[in-house]
């Protein structure tokens, strides 16, 4: 707790000013603009708690003074930041150092460059300009001033990513897209089939799926794909057992055992049960792991393990330990909480077969993910599979254990209150520690990006503001009582665009909600597409934005996984659900009235654009009495509106295409709603299988407008 009286009695108002100055020095916001553009001050208690999570003592005025003095001395002695990020464009191609400092650059191939200094800046510093032909990628920069010498990583990033051709694609929660051959949830074989069919028959250019990150290695498994155990490694839940090559050579008895395990999961269950799925799949995969491999397969596995190196071994070790001690490493014996400890090394040796099993699972995932991307591109898709990168991992996760030194403790990432989540959000995820991550030269971050980009042709960055700032919530505080902590945006964006350029991949940033000034412009300048969500496309007066005024560099969609599909939204299901769960901060009648006004405005625009023949009043009257007469016409009109925008990418939710009504996730809930467990179904709740999509007239009607608008691949 902050002793307010100590702050006031000892130093008066100046103590508060120094605290906020210290916060600014660590990129901790002392105030912020909320979703209504109102300036909101951050409480002293929050500032002190967040600074403590950064390793800064601000509990008393004296501690604040000492820390400010330390920062001044550090700035005086520093020649270089831990990472210097440049681009080969004027103004972004310079290395800034204090006066009287000499600079040299050692390229990745060992070549030494001595760039000439420019004129001193207004602050008296020097700016060394890189030669225009400096290779892209990672190098080293060295600075000398008298007896002082420092070196740092130098990243030369591309000016901007290529702009993708205009295409459309399905957006899908893969686990919900079940086929008659999948094991109770959609898997990577289903993904390959969906991509191949939609690319070949519907001219789709991509498939955007939920994060396929690693989950817990043993039940209970958190159903949220946005609360993973690792963002670098993928989830074995998504493996198709029968696609493992060794399956074909199994003895008949083993194949019968596997068939029996699968049969129990192929019934139409009302909700997806990941614990049951993984229990069965793990038993089947253990049979396959023990099966003999050909010499070529053995060599391929050894090559994969060499490529992934110590990161794979550490992750697989965590998995093996979690099977014995539970999925939360913070509850393990203290000697096992440090991944570098002798105790962990001894346990890894004892559990070597299980460690190897979990490494082998990642190899199978690598192969099946590669096959899915190949199926997509072979169908004619220019992008293929677009993966989704979650904001972070849980506190109990493998990543938080392996990279413990670069995460902040005592806080979680979340979001401040906004229009749809009026109490704010606490996602239960530790944030990167900005300074420690920089001192690690962003290696955990860029290695994660490289791994994700190897698996497809594009990457969506959930909560794209993570490259610039995150909302930190102190432990025990309300999500509304957090504050923003800033990161080196230039460095993080440079890491992102360099890895994307290496993979020739498309990047989409989910930039919805409260976005600080200049972030969208910086993303666009680098060639990172934004996200244009139809329901959020309104002008300053709240009126729907006509399609011609939407952003060009964006992925345009109607909704998102945190909102109901079109049919549910049309009927106000989200208002009724949040009211039933106690998530509203004002009367339900007021929320419903606002929803009707918003819906009426969109219907009027659709009608005025000639996309909806039905009069808006007739649609509203039908909705009011619970009728579904106009549902499919409204859905088709909304997709036709997307087609009229200049957006480079257009996403059509598979749930919208089949008339699904239920939302996949209701923010602010855990067990109150079956988040992330809803299998794909139509408006009447009847299951929809992947096998049935090609003959479903609703799907063809839903995608017809976007298919026609992008068929030329402009």
TrEMBL record:
Catalysis: reaction(s): Transfers a segment of a (1->4)-alpha-D-glucan to a new position in an acceptor, which may be glucose or a (1->4)-alpha-D-glucan
Span of domain MalQ N-terminal beta-sandwich: 80-158
UniProt KW keywords: Carbohydrate metabolism, Glycosyltransferase, Transferase
Listed EC numbers: 2.4.1.25
Keyword check for Methyltransferase: no
A Pfam family the protein falls into: MalQ_N
InterPro entries: GH (IPR017853), Glyco_hydro_77 (IPR003385), MalQ_N (IPR048458)
Highest taxon listed in the record's lineage: Bacteria
Family listed: Belongs to the disproportionating enzyme family.
NCBIfam families (alphabetical): malQ
Protein name, per record: 4-alpha-glucanotransferase
Organism of provenance: Actinomadura keratinilytica
Gene name per UniProt: malQ
